[in-house]
Amino acid sequence: MTRKTWTLVALLALLGIGGVLLFRPSTPQGVNVAPLVGLELGEGYRQIERVKEKLRGEFYEQNTHDGGTRLIIPRRQDGAIYRSIELHQFQKREGALEEYLSYRATFTEGLSRRLYLERGSQFERYFISYATTRFDTNHGIPMGIITAPEILIGVLKQNLFVSVSYSSYRSRLRWGLDYVPRINEDIEYARDLLE
Protein backbone atom coordinates (compact mmCIF):
# COMPACT_ATOMS: atom_id res chain seq x y z
CA MET A 1 0.00 0.00 0.00
CA THR A 2 1.18 3.48 -0.74
CA ARG A 3 1.61 6.23 1.82
CA LYS A 4 -1.45 7.99 0.39
CA THR A 5 -3.61 4.88 0.92
CA TRP A 6 -2.37 4.46 4.50
CA THR A 7 -3.12 8.10 5.23
CA LEU A 8 -6.64 7.73 3.86
CA VAL A 9 -7.27 4.56 5.89
CA ALA A 10 -5.94 6.21 9.06
CA LEU A 11 -8.10 9.30 8.48
CA LEU A 12 -11.23 7.18 7.97
CA ALA A 13 -10.45 5.21 11.14
CA LEU A 14 -9.99 8.40 13.17
CA LEU A 15 -13.20 9.87 11.80
CA GLY A 16 -15.03 6.67 12.65
CA ILE A 17 -13.68 6.55 16.20
CA GLY A 18 -14.50 10.25 16.67
CA GLY A 19 -18.01 9.65 15.37
CA VAL A 20 -18.59 6.78 17.78
CA LEU A 21 -17.45 9.01 20.64
CA LEU A 22 -19.67 11.89 19.50
CA PHE A 23 -22.84 9.94 18.74
CA ARG A 24 -24.48 8.38 21.76
CA PRO A 25 -26.30 5.08 21.30
CA SER A 26 -30.04 4.74 21.77
CA THR A 27 -30.40 3.16 25.20
CA PRO A 28 -33.48 1.69 26.87
CA GLN A 29 -33.50 4.37 29.56
CA GLY A 30 -37.13 4.97 30.52
CA VAL A 31 -38.42 1.57 29.39
CA ASN A 32 -40.96 0.36 31.95
CA VAL A 33 -41.17 -3.42 32.33
CA ALA A 34 -43.33 -3.24 35.47
CA PRO A 35 -46.60 -4.10 33.66
CA LEU A 36 -45.17 -7.50 32.59
CA VAL A 37 -43.05 -8.16 35.65
CA GLY A 38 -46.01 -7.46 37.95
CA LEU A 39 -48.24 -10.11 36.36
CA GLU A 40 -49.19 -12.95 38.71
CA LEU A 41 -49.44 -15.90 36.34
CA GLY A 42 -48.46 -18.80 38.59
CA GLU A 43 -46.76 -22.00 37.56
CA GLY A 44 -48.36 -23.87 34.69
CA TYR A 45 -49.79 -20.90 32.77
CA ARG A 46 -52.06 -22.30 30.04
CA GLN A 47 -53.91 -19.26 28.66
CA ILE A 48 -52.44 -19.18 25.14
CA GLU A 49 -55.79 -20.25 23.62
CA ARG A 50 -57.45 -17.24 25.25
CA VAL A 51 -54.66 -14.99 23.92
CA LYS A 52 -55.25 -16.39 20.39
CA GLU A 53 -58.95 -15.51 20.65
CA LYS A 54 -58.08 -11.93 21.61
CA LEU A 55 -55.73 -11.64 18.62
CA ARG A 56 -58.31 -12.92 16.08
CA GLY A 57 -55.74 -14.52 13.82
CA GLU A 58 -53.23 -11.65 13.82
CA PHE A 59 -50.27 -13.79 14.85
CA TYR A 60 -47.91 -16.51 13.66
CA GLU A 61 -47.84 -19.76 15.59
CA GLN A 62 -45.00 -22.25 16.04
CA ASN A 63 -44.36 -25.17 18.37
CA THR A 64 -41.67 -24.94 21.01
CA HIS A 65 -39.09 -27.70 21.37
CA ASP A 66 -40.97 -29.26 24.30
CA GLY A 67 -44.43 -29.26 22.69
CA GLY A 68 -45.51 -25.84 23.90
CA THR A 69 -46.63 -22.89 21.77
CA ARG A 70 -44.86 -19.80 20.45
CA LEU A 71 -46.94 -16.87 19.22
CA ILE A 72 -45.25 -14.15 17.19
CA ILE A 73 -47.35 -10.98 17.23
CA PRO A 74 -46.25 -8.29 14.78
CA ARG A 75 -46.99 -4.75 15.86
CA ARG A 76 -47.62 -1.69 13.74
CA GLN A 77 -44.77 -1.09 11.36
CA ASP A 78 -43.74 2.53 11.12
CA GLY A 79 -41.78 2.55 7.88
CA ALA A 80 -38.28 1.39 8.74
CA ILE A 81 -39.21 0.36 12.29
CA TYR A 82 -39.85 -3.27 13.21
CA ARG A 83 -41.76 -4.06 16.41
CA SER A 84 -42.86 -7.46 17.66
CA ILE A 85 -44.01 -9.39 20.70
CA GLU A 86 -43.36 -13.10 21.17
CA LEU A 87 -45.13 -15.28 23.71
CA HIS A 88 -43.49 -18.64 24.38
CA GLN A 89 -45.56 -21.00 26.52
CA PHE A 90 -43.65 -24.14 27.49
CA GLN A 91 -44.85 -27.38 29.04
CA LYS A 92 -42.28 -27.03 31.82
CA ARG A 93 -40.69 -23.99 33.34
CA GLU A 94 -37.21 -25.40 32.66
CA GLY A 95 -37.95 -25.04 28.93
CA ALA A 96 -38.90 -21.40 29.43
CA LEU A 97 -35.72 -20.78 31.44
CA GLU A 98 -33.65 -22.35 28.67
CA GLU A 99 -35.30 -20.03 26.11
CA TYR A 100 -34.72 -17.01 28.37
CA LEU A 101 -31.03 -17.85 28.72
CA SER A 102 -30.72 -18.41 24.97
CA TYR A 103 -32.26 -15.02 24.14
CA ARG A 104 -30.15 -13.34 26.81
CA ALA A 105 -26.96 -14.80 25.37
CA THR A 106 -27.93 -13.97 21.77
CA PHE A 107 -28.95 -10.38 22.47
CA THR A 108 -26.23 -9.38 24.95
CA GLU A 109 -23.07 -10.79 23.38
CA GLY A 110 -21.00 -9.41 20.54
CA LEU A 111 -19.33 -6.13 19.76
CA SER A 112 -22.47 -4.01 19.51
CA ARG A 113 -24.82 -5.68 22.02
CA ARG A 114 -25.04 -4.77 25.70
CA LEU A 115 -27.00 -5.92 28.72
CA TYR A 116 -28.71 -2.84 30.12
CA LEU A 117 -30.43 -4.39 33.12
CA GLU A 118 -31.24 -7.81 34.58
CA ARG A 119 -33.33 -8.47 37.67
CA GLY A 120 -34.97 -11.42 39.40
CA SER A 121 -33.93 -15.02 39.90
CA GLN A 122 -34.87 -18.55 39.01
CA PHE A 123 -38.18 -18.58 37.09
CA GLU A 124 -39.21 -14.95 37.66
CA ARG A 125 -36.69 -12.66 35.96
CA TYR A 126 -36.20 -10.21 33.14
CA PHE A 127 -33.49 -8.51 31.10
CA ILE A 128 -33.23 -5.49 28.81
CA SER A 129 -30.60 -5.38 26.08
CA TYR A 130 -29.68 -2.85 23.41
CA ALA A 131 -27.33 -2.31 20.49
CA THR A 132 -24.66 0.34 20.99
CA THR A 133 -23.38 2.84 18.44
CA ARG A 134 -21.93 0.82 15.58
CA PHE A 135 -20.46 1.22 12.14
CA ASP A 136 -22.53 0.75 9.02
CA THR A 137 -20.07 -1.14 6.86
CA ASN A 138 -19.85 -2.31 3.30
CA HIS A 139 -17.45 -5.25 2.99
CA GLY A 140 -15.63 -4.09 6.12
CA ILE A 141 -15.31 -0.47 5.04
CA PRO A 142 -17.03 2.01 7.40
CA MET A 143 -19.74 3.88 5.50
CA GLY A 144 -21.52 5.55 8.39
CA ILE A 145 -22.48 5.35 12.03
CA ILE A 146 -25.66 3.70 13.29
CA THR A 147 -27.26 5.11 16.43
CA ALA A 148 -30.77 3.83 15.72
CA PRO A 149 -32.36 1.88 18.57
CA GLU A 150 -32.39 -1.92 18.70
CA ILE A 151 -33.86 -2.97 22.01
CA LEU A 152 -35.08 -6.32 23.32
CA ILE A 153 -36.87 -7.03 26.59
CA GLY A 154 -37.10 -10.63 27.80
CA VAL A 155 -39.40 -11.57 30.70
CA LEU A 156 -39.56 -15.03 32.26
CA LYS A 157 -42.71 -15.87 34.24
CA GLN A 158 -42.58 -19.52 35.30
CA ASN A 159 -43.30 -21.54 32.10
CA LEU A 160 -43.91 -18.42 29.97
CA PHE A 161 -41.22 -16.39 28.22
CA VAL A 162 -42.22 -13.03 26.70
CA SER A 163 -39.99 -10.97 24.41
CA VAL A 164 -40.70 -7.46 23.19
CA SER A 165 -38.43 -6.12 20.45
CA TYR A 166 -37.99 -2.77 18.75
CA SER A 167 -35.58 -2.22 15.86
CA SER A 168 -35.27 0.93 13.84
CA TYR A 169 -33.45 1.23 10.56
CA ARG A 170 -33.51 5.04 10.65
CA SER A 171 -31.03 7.26 12.37
CA ARG A 172 -32.33 8.48 15.71
CA LEU A 173 -30.54 11.78 15.15
CA ARG A 174 -31.96 12.34 11.68
CA TRP A 175 -35.55 11.39 12.40
CA GLY A 176 -35.82 12.41 16.07
CA LEU A 177 -37.31 9.06 17.05
CA ASP A 178 -39.05 8.87 20.38
CA TYR A 179 -38.93 5.10 20.73
CA VAL A 180 -39.39 4.57 24.49
CA PRO A 181 -43.18 5.32 24.49
CA ARG A 182 -43.65 2.81 21.64
CA ILE A 183 -41.75 0.12 23.54
CA ASN A 184 -43.76 0.83 26.69
CA GLU A 185 -46.96 0.64 24.62
CA ASP A 186 -45.95 -2.83 23.37
CA ILE A 187 -45.14 -3.98 26.93
CA GLU A 188 -48.59 -2.86 28.10
CA TYR A 189 -50.20 -4.57 25.09
CA ALA A 190 -48.45 -7.85 25.97
CA ARG A 191 -49.61 -7.50 29.57
CA ASP A 192 -53.21 -6.92 28.43
CA LEU A 193 -53.08 -10.04 26.28
CA LEU A 194 -51.88 -12.19 29.17
CA GLU A 195 -54.32 -10.91 31.82
Q: Count the DSSP helices.
A: 6
Distance between the termini: 64 Å
Strand order of the largest sheet: 1-2-3-9-8-5-4
Strand content: 25-35%
Global shape: elongated
One letter per element, helices H and strands E, the order comes to HHHEEEHEEEEEEHH
Tell me the total number of β-strands. Answer: 9
Mean residue pLDDT = 82
What is the number of domains?
1
Structural class: alpha+beta
Give the % helix.
25-40%
Largest sheet: 7 strands, antiparallel
The low-pLDDT segments are none
Description:
- The chain has one domain (3-194).
- It has 6 helices and 9 strands; from the N terminus they run αααβββαββββββαα.
- The protein has helices at residues 3-22, 34-37, 48-55, 93-108, 172-175, 180-194, and strands at 60-63, 69-74, 81-89, 113-121, 124-131, 134-138, 141-146, 150-157, 160-168.
- It has a 7-stranded antiparallel β-sheet, sandwiched between helices. Strands 6-7 form a two-stranded antiparallel sheet.
- The longest helix is centred in the first third of the chain and has 20 residues, at 3-22.
- It is elongated.
- The mean pLDDT is 82.
Compact summary:
The protein is α+β, with helices and mostly antiparallel strands and 195 residues long. The protein is 34% helix and 33% strand. It has one domain (3-194).
